[in-house]
């Protein structure tokens, strides 16, 4: 192992052997082994549905395993409930953070524990302790008295980590912590993780971004279909290709589909956005997308990218500007008009905004195209399911069962289902917000190919992604957004990741300079 002396293979902090957990119709865990050393970052990898979340819920005491053994510091333990896990020093930072929005930072950190419970003096003590924990995490700017719901995602995550520290956690499980963070925030998180491991705290880290594993991980365990297929691999030395093969059971050329060489260069634009503005979010955004073209919006989280898509879609009412589809101006702030004109939006927050959790997978996929399956007033369920099945196969939704309730799918598979809905619907203009968030490496390349296929059929596509390589690999043209303004527009092959980051940072500096009245010669769109 390449890390600190703390990662020498000594007595493991945690040992899991032969863990089994079955749900009706599926063995989510079918004999999982995992060892975690004190002070290491142990990465847990696997495709969507491989069993990662189920395993960490077992560790967190939220699920009871049907079989298997768990030892903690050499002693057999039973994690009968979340309190049992917590009292041993196991803390979990879930993807959907379990914070209470309406409470303060300090209240959340000490929720349910004594320090927050008694009178004023304890309140100020709680605030002081919370401040000290956040300072230890390198985030003294997060005020203990701030309401958690008002904080950005990265700060909320720090509050969760502070809570783990306040419980003297020796093992912190982080389930896709980077999914909601931009590059700079991920680097800061990694700084925090390095400090934690230097103090001998172990971290189990889950992510679908394999480049992160190399940067922050010490060892890797790979799950496939509920089983451990490899464990203890060195994170930096194991080739990415090998990890992907272990995860998927096949070789994947992790490539983007080829761009069309002869773009519909002189075709009329299908989507025209002109001088669009939304007070407090973005201003003067103009771009066009021709049929067959994929335009990417790159920028940091919070730069206004998602708001641009939502405004084009009519979900927000612009303060200025216009949107045209095939030359016809849409009524501003009217999603009905946008949908009628053929615009589709696959939003970022798929789970809360888009998924019908209690409905079957096939209905979730067909819901926006039901007209297609109706004849003389009857819905052909057979046709509906057949169409859904095709999408499920193409996107490798697991299990590939269209009758299953959406709520029983793993997070990444739920993402694929909502995406499938928009891929099935006949849109002329498709707006995709973070189309591969939480999606595994195998399905990513399938999604890229499907998006390109839609473009080849004449759809105008706009893609927002916080992963800059994804925007550059997929799009034909890229708009770089910084602080709510388009700071550059280029063909994708004229850019690389560093160039985009430089423009984003320059745009941010420019905005600050402009706000303080200083001259700034930026790179205009
Ligand atoms: N409560 C449940 N009821 C039925 N099946 C479930 C339940 N929870 C999980 N499963 C199934 O167990 C399997 C493993 O799911 P899990 O959420 O652990 O996967 P994962 O590796 O975390 O995936 P992702 O990367 O998509 O988050 C999946 O087939 C899933 O559909």
Automatic annotation (TrEMBL):
The entry's keywords = ATP-binding, Cell membrane, Membrane, Nucleotide-binding, Repeat, Translocase, Transport
> Among the entry's GO cellular component annotations, what is one?
plasma membrane
Q: Name one Pfam family in it.
A: ABC_tran
Cell location: Cell membrane
Domain of life of the native organism: Bacteria
Cite the SMART domains for this sequence. Answer: AAA (SM00382)
The molecular function terms of the Gene Ontology recorded here are: ATP binding; ATP hydrolysis activity
How does this protein sit in the membrane?
Peripheral membrane protein
The region annotated as signal peptide is: none
- The ABC transporter domain covers 14-250, 265-508
**Under which name does UniProt file this protein?**
Ribose transport system ATP-binding protein
Q: Which organism is it from?
A: Petropleomorpha daqingensis
Lineage start: Bacteria, Bacillati, Actinomycetota, Actinomycetes, Geodermatophilales
């Amino acid at each position: 192992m390449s890390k600190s002396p703390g990662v020498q293979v000594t007595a493991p902090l945690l040992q899991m052997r032969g863990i089994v957990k079955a749900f009706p119709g599926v063995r989510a865990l079918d004999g999982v082994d995992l060892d975690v050393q004190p002070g290491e970052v142990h990465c847990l990898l696997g495709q969507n549905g491989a069993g990662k979340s189920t395993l960490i819920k077992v560790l967190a005491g939220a699920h009871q395993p049907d079989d298997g053994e768990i030892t903690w510091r050499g002693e057999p333990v039973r994690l009968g409930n979340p309190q049992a896990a917590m009292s041993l020093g196991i803390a979990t930072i879930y993807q959907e953070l379990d914070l209470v929005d309406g409470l303060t930072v300090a209240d959340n950190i000490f929720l349910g524990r004594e320090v927050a419970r008694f009178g004023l003096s304890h309140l100020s003590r709680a605030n002081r302790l919370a401040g000290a924990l956040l300072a230890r995490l390198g985030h003294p700017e997060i005020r203990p008295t701030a309401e958690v719901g008002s904080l950005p995602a990265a700060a909320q995550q720090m509050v969760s980590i502070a809570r783990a520290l306040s419980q003297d956690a020796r093992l912190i499980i982080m389930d896709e912590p980077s999914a909601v963070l931009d590059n700079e925030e991920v680097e800061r998180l990694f700084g925090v993780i390095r400090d934690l491991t230097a103090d001998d705290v172990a971290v189990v880290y889950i992510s679908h971004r394999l480049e992160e594993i190399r940067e922050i991980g010490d060892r890797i365990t790979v799950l496939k279909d509920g089983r451990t297929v490899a464990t203890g691999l060195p994170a930096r030395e194991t080739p990415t290709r090998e990890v992907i093969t272990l995860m998927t059971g096949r070789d994947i050329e992790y490539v983007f589909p080829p761009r069309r060489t002869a773009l519909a260069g002189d075709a009329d634009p299908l989507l025209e956005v002109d001088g669009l503005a939304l007070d407090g979010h973005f201003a003067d955004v103009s771009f066009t997308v021709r049929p067959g073209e994929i335009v990417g919006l790159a920028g940091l989280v919070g730069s206004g990218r998602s708001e641009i898509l939502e405004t084009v879609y009519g979900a927000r009412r612009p303060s200025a500007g216009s949107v045209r589809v095939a030359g016809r101006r849409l009524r501003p702030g009217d999603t009905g008009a946008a949908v009628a004109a053929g615009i589709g939006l696959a939003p970022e927050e798929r789970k809360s905004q888009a998924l019908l959790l209690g409905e079957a997978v096939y209905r979730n996929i067909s819901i926006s195209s039901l007209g297609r399956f109706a004849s003389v007033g009857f819905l052909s369920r057979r046709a509906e399911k057949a169409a859904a099945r095709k999408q499920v196969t193409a996107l490798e939704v697991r299990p590939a069962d269209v009758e299953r309730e959406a709520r029983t799918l793993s997070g990444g598979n739920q993402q694929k289902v909502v995406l499938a809905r928009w891929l099935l619907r006949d849109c002329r203009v498709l707006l995709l917000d973070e189309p591969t968030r939480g999606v595994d490496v195998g399905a990513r390349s399938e999604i890229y190919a499907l998006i390109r296929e839609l473009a080849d059929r004449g759809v105008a596509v706009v893609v927002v992604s916080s992963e800059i390589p994804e925007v550059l690999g997929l799009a034909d043209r890229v708009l770089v957004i910084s602080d709510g303004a388009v700071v550059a527009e280029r063909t994708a092959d004229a850019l690389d990741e560093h160039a985009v980051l430089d423009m984003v940072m320059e745009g941010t500096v420019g905005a600050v300079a402009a706000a303080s009245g200083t001259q700034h010669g930026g790179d205009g769109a």
